[in-house]
Design a protein that fits this description.
The protein is an alpha/beta fold. The chain is 38% helix and 12% strand.
């Protein structure tokens, strides 16, 4: 089937039994430093390049944050997504803050787990969970400077580079921030590992994940009813004598980390040769992606990421052509390894239907079978009269809906979604079940960069996505 198959939900490593484990492939004339010979867009101007190099040298002696074997495991799971046997949920903050509290990290994980349960329950397909978390500290900007009340200063580029405050010293790139980013990523990852393996993520806790402010919303009430059904199913399994390993499996989830590999000095410093396979891995996260603004062929970002063996994402905006994407496939995945390459399309609701069919079939007819998730966030921004940058829930949904339709037309697999969200009760995007109105935006507009879906909008979106998936595939037939 060109769409998600009716394979029942099961542990992904069983789904993958027909595909050999992703193993490193030789990469022609590449070194962790070879990107330095190419043009690197979106890099800060470090005021003191020696100080920057000193931090990079220190970072290159620090322990890796992830293990190469985990990146290979994620590649295998993404291969299942490419085959239509699983769905990718990649989600998290637009730009993480160094000040993020433990509660906020837990709540972001919680809302992703809630969304994954909704999707799994209603589609019967495993959900591969990848956070924009534990390293999403750098942001590409459309302008190098920002003007406020006649004062022009360098743009905020994420906490790994400078601060959001609007003064000269706040906006000066500070290389010590690279080390802070590494330490924050390590602490966040440690907490995520504890939560996902230590019982918090247990399916027996589905009720507890429903936070107060979500529980009161229409999506929260719908979620509560589903959680009752899951509880009853677990009780039923226990009453039937299903215990031991099968129930123990419900206590833990696999959760992976990802971020935009924007700051190449940082990524190079965390790139290590795997002693088991001899391949190079960027050990700052399990999955790295190339942004829409840095995906130039021959550019430094493509050059760097073609040599690391992690699963790689690449954002694809409305100007992309099938030939461009095929050239990116040749550069980033010349051996066509299943699960290696993910094209995250971010077209905008009114462009998705027109542009997707030639792109999708242009790539897949030529051979490559990348994972195709939809990022419905960057293509749908607008500013309100009082200057809030926002997005409307209905536009987000319209892009996802057009994305499913385009895949149906092309006969390719809609692989998942990529979202900017938070578990906090913010008011940054309009609409959703517990409707956020224009006049609500200023009450809790907390993002450091672009507007994110709040907890109840995210759970609402998961239900709407599940409905779309069931309607546009042979699922549940
Ligand atoms: C992002 O996802 O943070 C981002 C900047 O997206 P894009 O590269 O698609 O604009």
């Amino acid at each position: 089937s060109p769409h998600l198959s009716t394979t029942p939900a099961r542990r992904l490593y069983f789904v993958d039994s027909t595909v050999p484990a992703a193993s490193p492939a030789p990469v022609a004339s590449w070194a962790p430093t070879s990107w330095r010979e190419c043009t690197a867009h979106q890099q800060p101007n470090w005021p003191d390049s020696d100080a920057h190099q000193a931090v990079v040298d220190r970072l290159s002696t620090m322990p890796p944050l992830v293990f190469a074997g985990e990146a290979r495991e994620l590649t295998d799971q993404l291969a299942a997504v490419a085959r239509g046997e699983a769905f990718l949920l990649q989600a998290g903050d637009c730009a993480e803050s160094f000040e993020t509290s433990a509660d906020s990290i837990r709540d972001r994980l919680r809302v992703i787990l809630q969304m994954a349960v909704v999707l799994t329950y209603y589609t019967g397909v495993p959900v591969v969970k990848v956070g924009r978390i534990a390293g999403q500290f750098a942001k590409p900007r459309s302008s190098d400077t920002e003007m406020v009340d006649g004062v022009e200063l360098p743009s905020f580029r994420g906490h790994i580079i400078n601060d959001i405050g609007f003064s000269e010293s706040d906006r000066l790139p500070d290389p010590e921030r690279l080390m802070t980013a590494y330490n924050r990523a390590a602490a966040t990852l440690n907490l995520l590992r504890a939560f996902t393996k230590g019982g918090f993520a247990s399916l027996t806790s589905v009720h507890q994940w429903n936070r107060e402010f979500i529980a009161d919303s229409p999506a929260g009430q719908r979620y509560e009813a589903m959680a009752d059904e899951i509880d009853r199913a677990i009780q039923f399994m226990k009453a039937c004598g299903i215990t031991g390993d099968t129930l123990a499996d419900l206590r833990q989830v696999d959760f992976y980390t990802s971020h935009e590999a924007l700051l190449l000095g940082y990524e190079e410093a965390l790139t290590r040769e795997d002693s088991l396979t001899g391949g190079w891995y960027d050990c700052s996260a399990h999955m790295l992606w190339i942004g829409e603004r840095t995906r130039q062929l021959g550019g430094a970002h493509v050059e760097f990421l073609r040599g690391v063996n992690n699963p790689i994402g690449c954002k694809v905006g409305p100007t992309a052509t099938a030939d461009e994407l095929l050239a990116l496939c040749d550069a980033l995945d010349p051996y066509r390894r299943p699960g290696r390459l993910t094209f995250v399309t971010r077209m905008g609701a009114n462009k998705v239907a027109d542009l997707r069919p030639p792109l999708l079939s242009g790539v897949s007819d030529a051979g490559p079978q990348p994972v195709w998730p939809c990022d419905p966030m960057p293509g749908n921004p607008f500013a309100t009269d009082d200057g809030h940058k926002t997005r409307h829930f209905e536009d987000v949904l319209a892009e996802v809906s057009g994305f499913f339709a385009a895949h149906r037309f092309a006969g390719t697999n809609p692989g998942g979604v990529h979202l900017e969200l938070t578990g906090d009760d913010v008011t940054e995007c309009l609409g959703g079940g517990a409707e956020v109105l224009t006049e609500d935006l200023s009450s809790r507009y907390e993002t450091m960069c672009d507007p994110r879906l709040n907890g109840s909008q995210s759970v609402d979106l998961a239900f709407r996505l599940a409905e779309l998936l069931r309607a546009t595939s042979d699922l549940g037939a």
